[in-house]
Write a structure and sequence with these properties.
The protein has 369 residues and is α/β, with parallel strands linked by helices. Helices cover 33% and strands 21% of the residues. The chain is globular and about 80 Å long.
């Protein structure tokens, strides 16, 4: 029997392989290597400077050559970059095309996005079981995670603070209904409960850890890292909230392979052109909408609306529909602020719906135009 000789990938033995370097990145970097530049991954960004892990170790580099006016094109944690092989200071000359990017809106008053992490395989949304769960916030996080191109995972932390297993199961079910197609895991980082299972789900890729202050992100990060790397502070008893213990986005290697990007606690999570992500989070509503009588049904008062029929039958919770409408409106608004054509389409749609509303009101009163 003739056995083929196993092929050996040069990328698998590269010193950056533990940080996610593979054959794809190797091919992307070919032209930069010919110019004498070094490949590296950004582990931290701070005021125009960044720490880059290279085959020669971690170097400090200036990002002056890649600081465009577009905030979505600045260097961020998780980027693969081409950096000077020597010199003082060293400069990042460019970054490789991103496979995924987690982006949120910086402010509801400005049409700007902020990139939080790049080239992420999994987005872990951490939620504390010690406080009342905000399912609307879960859906918002998941919309951005799906839009990024990464696989979201919901992790319910501080399970040790919920003594009743039945109560925990009930909360898990609530989250699962709000997160179709998303793994929902329960962990206690302090006791090590559920950590092995979470590690198995994440694999050896790049994981971004997101959540509000007090969600137990730093404790969870320490459990995944196998050592106390992140500072941990107690939450307030009155509302379960904590102070920001993580102030920058940091990329850290995991002991079992892969890397973790820990992020500061997020107070606001604005959508940024996340229409596809919203549709993924509310996939059951998108599926029902295909059976509506009208193709542009707003699921508000239209006859023959399959979505409203599901609400009336008790198959679709009213809260889910309200949350879906809210996120769609928000996303449409943020897109419209930066797209003149979309603004025009929205105005036209508003005028049409107002006219239809007035016509329906007149018909109900027996009046005719």
């Amino acid at each position: 029997m003739n056995l083929a000789t196993p092929t050996h990938s040069p990328a698998s033995s590269h010193p950056l392989a533990p940080y996610g370097w593979d054959d794809g990145w190797e091919a992307e970097f070919t032209g930069h290597a010919e110019r004498g530049l070094l490949p590296g991954r950004v582990v931290r960004v701070d005021r125009g400077q960044c720490d880059v892990v290279t085959g020669d170790g971690v170097v400090r580099a200036d990002t002056a050559f890649v600081t465009p006016h577009d905030p979505l094109r600045v260097v961020c944690t998780g980027d693969w970059v081409a950096v000077d092989a020597e010199g003082t200071p060293r400069y990042v000359r460019t970054y490789l095309p991103r496979r995924t990017a987690f982006v949120r809106s910086t402010s509801s008053k400005r049409s700007e996005g902020q990139i939080l992490a790049a080239n992420v395989d999994h987005v872990v949304v951490a939620l504390s079981l010690a406080v009342e769960l905000d399912l609307g916030r879960v859906e918002r996080f998941l919309a951005l995670a799906w839009e990024s191109g990464a696989q979201p995972v919901v992790v319910l932390t501080k399970a040790d603070l919920v003594p009743d297993p039945a109560g925990t199961a009930y909360l898990v079910e609530d989250v699962e209904r709000s997160a179709p197609g998303v793994p929902v895991l329960t962990v206690s980082a302090l006791e090590g409960q559920g950590i092995d299972r979470l590690t198995g789900v994440l694999g050896r890729g790049t994981t971004a850890l997101l959540g509000a202050s007090g969600a137990g992100k730093s404790t969870l990060a320490n459990a995944l890292l196998g050592e106390d790397v992140m500072d941990v502070r107690a939450t307030r008893d009155m509302d379960g909230k904590g102070r920001h213990t993580t102030t920058t986005r940091n990329l850290l290697p995991l002991p079992g392979g892969g890397v973790l990007i820990d992020t500061p606690g997020l107070r606001g999570v604005g959508l940024w052109d996340a229409g596809r992500g919203v549709g993924q989070v509310f996939s059951e509503i998108e599926s029902l909408a295909r059976d509506c009588r009208f193709q542009d049904c707003a699921h508000a008062f239209e006859p023959g609306c399959a979505v409203l029929a599901a609400v009336a039958d008790g198959d679709l919770p009213v809260r889910r529909l309200d949350s879906y409408r809210k996120l769609l409106r928000e996303n449409q608004w943020i897109v419209a602020k930066s797209d003149a054509r979309t603004r025009s389409d929205i105005r036209r749609d508003w005028k049409r719906k107002r006219a239809e509303g007035r016509a329906a009101w007149r018909a109900k009163r027996g009046e005719w135009a």
